[in-house]
Specification:
The structure is a homodimer of 345-residue chains. With 345 residues, chain A is an alpha/beta fold. Helices cover 45% and strands 15% of the residues of chain A.
Amino acid sequence: MKIAVDAMGGDNAPAVVIEGVERARDRFKDIEFDLFGDPKQVRPLIKDATRINLIETTEMIEMGEEPVRAIRKKKDSSIVRAAVAVKEGQADAFFSAGNTGAILAAGLFIVGRIKGIDRPGLTSILPIAKPGSGAKNFVYLDSGANAESKERNLLQFAQLGRFYAENVLGVNNPRIALLNNGTEEDKGDRLHKEVHQQLKAQRDLNFVGNVEASALLAGEADVIVSDGWTANAALKATEGTAKMMLTLIKNGIENGGLRAKLGYLFLKPVFKKIAKLMGTSTYGGAVLLGLKAPVVKTHGSADALAVENTIAQIYTMIESKVIEKTVSYFGQVQSEENIDKPSKN
Amino acid sequence: MKIAVDAMGGDNAPAVVIEGVERARDRFKDIEFDLFGDPKQVRPLIKDATRINLIETTEMIEMGEEPVRAIRKKKDSSIVRAAVAVKEGQADAFFSAGNTGAILAAGLFIVGRIKGIDRPGLTSILPIAKPGSGAKNFVYLDSGANAESKERNLLQFAQLGRFYAENVLGVNNPRIALLNNGTEEDKGDRLHKEVHQQLKAQRDLNFVGNVEASALLAGEADVIVSDGWTANAALKATEGTAKMMLTLIKNGIENGGLRAKLGYLFLKPVFKKIAKLMGTSTYGGAVLLGLKAPVVKTHGSADALAVENTIAQIYTMIESKVIEKTVSYFGQVQSEENIDKPSKN
């Protein structure tokens, strides 16, 4: 299998991208990489070029650029070229740590949607942080690709999440929940009430009801589905609060004198475990689900470990044939419905 | 001044309500209380009846009841009777730890809206948890009274929040921010983009731009305005994550052997300070702003301290004449606009 890598994206690119790619290359003997970037910057950083092909690009999409305009204008950027390689079948998946909007736009407009999917959903793999819970992580979408979602989008997200949980996380009959402002089924605005009823009616979904944002990481479901707006707010609040709590503790230790510093030494293993659990390097990247190939982004501040883990995640996506299975499912749904859905972007 | 108290609302009512009321009575020599409840349960718990009038009610609205139906049917419930006392001018403010929906409904339909306010906003006073930040807390609305909000609602929330921050928190020229999915002014769905522009155009508002949910408690503004849906999700995620982090630490300590237990002893003051900062007893209750009198609820699991602090908050609301000033402002805006706004619920 071959993965097209945007070598230029991310705060510490290309160095950490290349380091992560080399680590993944050593770990998975059957992955080959096409590395898109500026040879002057990239080549000197490659320690061992085994199964790494460097492909020259002359442009770069910066972090702050307007995404759609950027991918239209910068045809020779590392993001656009890597996405085109996937579209043309020269690579099986796309990886980047760059401009999120540009990656989403390249995925949507270049790699393209699965037939039957109106809008892809940005999918985060999040930790379950309840001590004693069986599962380790869960699938969360749409964590922000769409500011406004409709009922059919959320139903499709549920199916996309189910296929991911089954095939990539290896969960049997994954529990699907809807993020809502209350656990009772009559809670929410019109959209969420209606989506709740429709999810409940889907025979092939193991729908377990609503989950509130306060229980996001509590392990109540294997897939939590939401409109992009709400999911984005809840995810940011969760990440921000976890970080803030650690900062408050750090600050308390720094200002707590010798006693607090001793306490920190004794509790260090506990804090380290929590920081690892809540850390962003552990679970891989965010997947734009609903596209014809894996399009995966890791955060801009990713280190080499995060890059390596994200490539491991892409490896499992390809190996498990999750996308082929998703395509086949939606193809069947479409032919059963016998409806020609209009193309919507 | 006189405060109408629902003695029967809350998980530990009437005991903690009465204990809190007595503490507040001892603290503020000019407050008189009308305590609405079942005399058989309430009277034996009153230690000292100074400035406490017990008013008999025969019904009670339970925590799970459908709010609007409950306030229509249970005319002799403690919530309805206390709200009617405020409406009829026998009391200056309403307090309850009971069924949130019923309190909101009683506020809206019995106490009534300020002229010019289309919808009241549920307002939480939240802690600022960034070490070294000047301010201690901020005003957050609408934290969940309305599942769907329109532009004019959010603009009114901003003004309601401004008056509260100025008068009750004593903040000079409070900074107003909009909760949004990005800090740039072009971020968000149509509603949030439009609200951003309108807030910016308001000459009497010190609008400082967008705040993301990740920075909710970071002290970037004195008032954070949001539609009820998003604010509710972000608040629940924040509260849930803070609680979860403390649980993870507790669990790590319990399973970390002697070393971790020693560490906990040394760090106890740090954890206590953080638990207090993030605790719900410190900042008083949630205010339904936009009504003709203070209608304030504290959470169902409130202890006597939370009841006392919430009454202190009501005291400041009455003393500062925040509602009179808000009424006068919206009256003026209305006469300037010279528009007869239709009544909307």
